[in-house]
Design a protein that fits this description.
By secondary structure, the chain is mainly alpha-helical. Helix content is about 40%, strand content about 5%. Helix 1 (about 1-20) crosses helix 2, helix 3 crosses helix 6 (about 115-130) and helix 7 (about 150-160) crosses helix 10 (about 225-240).
């Protein structure tokens, strides 16, 4: 029995050697086939396809079990504009923030270990899926991006803070960023001003769904709000104790 197995293995080895000799290209093509996918498609099919689907329609095998549903890259609406762009499509920098940090409150996880090149390539691939082509948004000009409001409540609501932060004093139930109830007992006026102007300077430890990721808060409020508006909002928040 053992002799028969060795005989079979020897025969197989001879066949492989014969293939290499008579047709090395054929051998390499079938035995060591190269991955011909683009880098972006390879990353997409490794990490994204299970939720977003083969063609980016948001219909992957896991999609039926998820709420909210995965983004439809072909024709769906995008929601997260971290770089202050007006939409309807995000800048590459916003897509990178979403990929790196994930989306709290959804099934979209963070991918901090992807290389810069992999992120760049998968963004390019995602954009190639868009029906009618991807129209690059214009970066927001600070002068055209002002947020109206004089009172703290107006500024808070008009800046979209209520969509992310819970603050009982204003009836806000946002569940993305850290709750602001009692924020005045944790941060001074100066620290709140810094958090508005430079959100990544100090990252809050706890968000509703776990540790707060870097970049979850828009980075351009320092440009879109006046100094007076920022101080008005910071003073109000500092009073929440």
């Amino acid at each position: 029995m053992v002799a028969r197995i060795f005989s079979w293995l020897a025969g197989l080895a001879l066949v492989l050697v014969f293939l290499v000799i008579i047709s090395p290209d054929l051998f390499r093509g079938y035995i060591f086939a190269e991955d011909t996918r683009s880098g972006g498609r390879r990353v997409y099919e490794t990490y994204c396809i299970g939720c977003h689907g083969d063609n980016g329609l948001g219909d992957g095998e896991a999609a039926a079990f998820l709420n909210p549903k995965p983004r439809n890259f072909v024709s769906g609406n995008f929601k997260y504009f971290h770089s202050g762009e007006p939409g309807p499509l995000p800048l590459d920098s916003s897509l990178e923030t979403t990929i790196r940090n994930g989306v709290p409150g959804s099934a979209m996880p963070p991918f901090p270990l992807l290389s810069d090149q992999e992120v760049k390539e998968v963004i390019s691939y995602i954009k190639s899926l868009r029906a009618g082509g991807w129209v690059e948004p214009e970066p927001v000009q600070a002068a055209a991006a002002g947020i109206e409001g004089e009172t703290a409540e107006e500024i808070f609501n008009n800046a979209g803070c209520s969509g992310c932060h819970r603050l009982d004093a204003l009836g806000s139930v946002g569940g993305v960023g850290p709750a602001l109830n009692g924020v005045g007992s944790r941060l001074s006026v100066e620290e709140i001003v810094q958090s508005i102007k430079d959100p990544n300077a100090v990252i809050a430890e706890n968000c509703p769904t776990g540790p707060c990721p870097q970049g979850v808060m828009p980075q351009n409020f320092g440009d879109r709000l006046t100094e007076e508006q920022i101080n008005t909002l910071a003073q109000f928040l500092a009073e929440q104790k």
